[in-house]
Amino acid sequence: MARRATLIITVLLFYVAAASLFQAMNRAFWFDEVFTVAISRLGSMTDVWRALGEAADTSPPGFYVIERLLSGAIANERVGFRLGSIVAVPLASLCLFLFTKRDTDPVAACIAAVFPLLTVLYSTFSIEARPYALMACALSVCALAWQRASAPFGALVLALTLTAAVSIHYYAVFALVPFAAAEITWSVFHQRSRPRVWLAFAAGATSFMAYWPLLSNLRQVYGRYYWAKASVFRAITSYDEYMMLMTVGAMLGFIAVLSGALLVYVIRTVRPRPHDPIPPDVPPPNCVMALGFLWLPWIALVAAHVAGGGVAARYTIGAALGIAISASYVAYWLGRRASAVMLMCLLTAFGSKEIVFWGAELSGRNARRIDVDSFDRLLDRADPSLPIVVANGLEFVPLAYYAEPAMRTRLVALLDQESAREATGTDSIELDVLVLRKYMPITVETYDAFETQHDRFLLYASPGHGEWWQSRLLRDGFTLTTLAADGARVLYHVARPLAQR
Fold this sequence. Notes:
By secondary structure, this protein is α/β, with parallel strands linked by helices. It has helices spanning 2-25, 31-40, 45-53, 61-73, 77-80, 83-101, 106-114, 120-123, 132-147, 152-168, 176-190, 195-222, 232-242, 248-270, 284-294, 296-307, 318-334, 336-362, 372-378, 393-402, 405-408, 417-424, 428-436, 447-453, 469-475, and strands spanning 388-390, 411-415, 443-446, 456-461, 479-486, 489-495. Strand 5 (479-486) and strand 6 form a beta hairpin. Helix 13 (232-242) packs across helix 14. It starts with a helix and ends in a 6-residue tail after the last strand.
């Protein structure tokens, strides 16, 4: 059974890496990734640190150390900048397999390895030049090192990987809570402490404090209009974002069942009852750690409220690791047959999802975050002398990145932060674009200055951020004439009436 499980995981993880590589080669960079590329290409890490100090990105310097190394080693930029994420996801699954296999059996361990592949960790972040897959991988290595932290080498690896995790994403520091809770539980059960482990935790906390000035500046720049406001609703919906196979209610019920099972197991291990059907073979500290990761969105919510920061589901992607470990333990307690059935269900779900994906991919029906070809087609019949206002900042940035120099000079991002806040409650994208012009040749103008200088221009509108621009222009006396459309993406000719010129 162990050999068969190892074969399944090996084949599966090689497939995941190959599939991610293929997708990365065929996906244009989207908004966030362009920031990664622009900041990574600065002259030195000193320049990178200075840019991060100006709130050019929300990722710590450690992430950019990795990006600069990998992108410089691969000629294909779409692969080079995403290589860390491509490798990180299968490595994270492998670490979860090894972590749970030590306390359960090969089938339950396979469950832990497969679960992350049904989350956004694989479907989204494995092909993004962003820190989330790398953070999850670092935390999975941390879990493996903590499990072996009684040995000096294990404690050293724990210190290094915790430091690395926080250096990849600031919010990885919240993982110290599950680890600390697990370590306290370990000390209670073993009647002794492990100073080396607490020194490892201190190393992770120290690295976070070193980055505090950067994180504090981000809070000051984006203020109370940050797009990812901390809220109970956002914490609840985080679980839905991790696994899109379930509804929010079903996912919350699943999390509640896993949490309840782990809690009952820990309590019964502390106070066993006669003829208890659950043997205490899984170490309770591991269950406490898994519980902590499961509740990571709530830990982040409390911390964000205290510190006045924001939090998004992807910032606490470590919760996906908690789901995987918890599901593995519960399946193991249910017995080998139940574990085998659950594993087959997970593999079937994964296979079905991949078949649907590749069918849509080969037929050209898969949606792209940014479709440069569609934008070019819309411009075929437009006046080539007019500036092009891209209403949605999320599309403006990648379109400007991929545009030829002559086209890039025509693309304009308009700033009206007050209108943005009134329409959406946030001006984060406007602030992002404003700071990006320091590091990338883009045209950013205030609306008041632009509209006094241009009586005619083109407006490219798409769903999402910036949808209020059409009504704003109509209210200001402009006329909008549709020139071309591709689904929900529309190109307008915008003109001020002759009487108002």
